[in-house]
Amino acid sequence: MNQSVIDLCASFLTLLTRVIDVDGTRMSRDSIYDQFVCRVWFTRAPLWALLVTSTYGILITAFERYFAVIHIMWYNVSVACSYYCISLLCDMTILR
Fold first, then answer.
1. Cα dist. 73→5, 40, 47, 63, 67 in Å?
2. How far apart are CA 22 and CA 43, in angstroms?
3. Could you report the per-residue pLDDT of 51-82, keeping only the tens digit for each?
4. Euclidean distance between CA atoms 43 and 39, whole angstroms
5. How many helices (H) and strands (E) does the chain have?
6. For labelling, which of 31, 34, 59, 87 has a CA lying 20 to 30 Å from the CA of 41?
7. How many other C-beta atoms are found inside a 10 Å radius of the C-beta of residue 6?
8. How confident is the model at residue 25 (pLDDT cuts 50, 70, 90)?
9. Residue 1 DSSP label
Protein backbone atom coordinates (compact mmCIF):
# COMPACT_ATOMS: atom_id res chain seq x y z
CA MET A 1 0.00 0.00 0.00
CA ASN A 2 1.18 3.50 -0.73
CA GLN A 3 2.49 5.62 2.16
CA SER A 4 0.14 8.50 1.36
CA VAL A 5 -2.91 6.17 1.41
CA ILE A 6 -1.88 4.85 4.83
CA ASP A 7 -1.43 8.40 6.14
CA LEU A 8 -4.78 9.45 4.67
CA CYS A 9 -6.57 6.55 6.36
CA ALA A 10 -4.81 7.29 9.66
CA SER A 11 -5.77 10.96 9.56
CA PHE A 12 -9.36 10.07 8.62
CA LEU A 13 -9.61 7.65 11.57
CA THR A 14 -8.08 10.26 13.87
CA LEU A 15 -10.74 12.72 12.76
CA LEU A 16 -13.48 10.14 13.25
CA THR A 17 -12.34 9.26 16.77
CA ARG A 18 -12.48 12.94 17.72
CA VAL A 19 -15.84 13.64 16.09
CA ILE A 20 -17.80 10.49 16.93
CA ASP A 21 -18.55 10.01 20.60
CA VAL A 22 -20.05 6.63 21.51
CA ASP A 23 -21.81 6.23 24.83
CA GLY A 24 -20.57 3.00 26.36
CA THR A 25 -22.95 2.90 29.32
CA ARG A 26 -25.87 1.31 27.47
CA MET A 27 -24.04 -1.56 25.78
CA SER A 28 -25.17 -5.16 25.89
CA ARG A 29 -23.25 -8.37 25.36
CA ASP A 30 -25.83 -9.69 22.89
CA SER A 31 -25.43 -7.00 20.25
CA ILE A 32 -22.80 -7.51 17.54
CA TYR A 33 -22.56 -3.76 17.04
CA ASP A 34 -21.86 -3.22 20.74
CA GLN A 35 -19.19 -5.94 20.68
CA PHE A 36 -17.55 -4.28 17.67
CA VAL A 37 -17.62 -0.86 19.30
CA CYS A 38 -16.18 -2.22 22.53
CA ARG A 39 -13.43 -4.35 21.00
CA VAL A 40 -12.41 -2.21 18.03
CA TRP A 41 -13.59 1.37 18.36
CA PHE A 42 -12.83 1.98 22.05
CA THR A 43 -9.38 0.39 21.76
CA ARG A 44 -8.62 2.38 18.60
CA ALA A 45 -6.80 -0.67 17.25
CA PRO A 46 -7.22 0.26 13.55
CA LEU A 47 -5.87 3.75 14.20
CA TRP A 48 -2.83 2.45 16.06
CA ALA A 49 -2.21 -0.19 13.40
CA LEU A 50 -2.21 2.47 10.68
CA LEU A 51 0.06 4.77 12.70
CA VAL A 52 2.56 1.96 13.34
CA THR A 53 2.42 0.93 9.67
CA SER A 54 3.07 4.52 8.60
CA THR A 55 6.01 4.85 10.98
CA TYR A 56 7.61 1.60 9.85
CA GLY A 57 7.09 2.57 6.20
CA ILE A 58 8.94 5.84 6.72
CA LEU A 59 11.66 4.05 8.69
CA ILE A 60 12.21 1.42 5.99
CA THR A 61 12.31 4.11 3.29
CA ALA A 62 14.91 6.06 5.26
CA PHE A 63 17.12 2.98 5.71
CA GLU A 64 16.78 2.07 2.05
CA ARG A 65 17.85 5.55 0.96
CA TYR A 66 20.71 5.57 3.46
CA PHE A 67 22.10 2.31 2.10
CA ALA A 68 21.61 3.53 -1.48
CA VAL A 69 23.76 6.60 -0.80
CA ILE A 70 26.36 5.38 1.70
CA HIS A 71 26.86 1.73 0.73
CA ILE A 72 26.51 1.93 -3.04
CA MET A 73 28.21 -1.33 -4.02
CA TRP A 74 26.51 -3.40 -1.34
CA TYR A 75 23.16 -1.83 -2.19
CA ASN A 76 23.43 -2.55 -5.92
CA VAL A 77 24.31 -6.19 -5.32
CA SER A 78 21.67 -6.73 -2.64
CA VAL A 79 18.91 -5.01 -4.63
CA ALA A 80 19.72 -7.06 -7.71
CA CYS A 81 19.75 -10.23 -5.60
CA SER A 82 16.48 -9.34 -3.88
CA TYR A 83 14.79 -8.58 -7.22
CA TYR A 84 16.00 -11.92 -8.55
CA CYS A 85 14.82 -13.80 -5.44
CA ILE A 86 11.43 -12.08 -5.43
CA SER A 87 10.88 -12.76 -9.12
CA LEU A 88 11.94 -16.38 -8.66
CA LEU A 89 9.56 -16.74 -5.71
CA CYS A 90 6.68 -15.18 -7.66
CA ASP A 91 7.36 -17.46 -10.63
CA MET A 92 7.35 -20.51 -8.38
CA THR A 93 4.05 -19.54 -6.76
CA ILE A 94 2.42 -18.82 -10.13
CA LEU A 95 3.56 -22.14 -11.60
CA ARG A 96 1.98 -24.18 -8.81
1. 32, 46, 39, 15, 9
2. 12
3. 999 999 898 888 888 877 877 777 677 766 77
4. 6
5. 4, 0
6. 59
7. 19
8. low
9. -
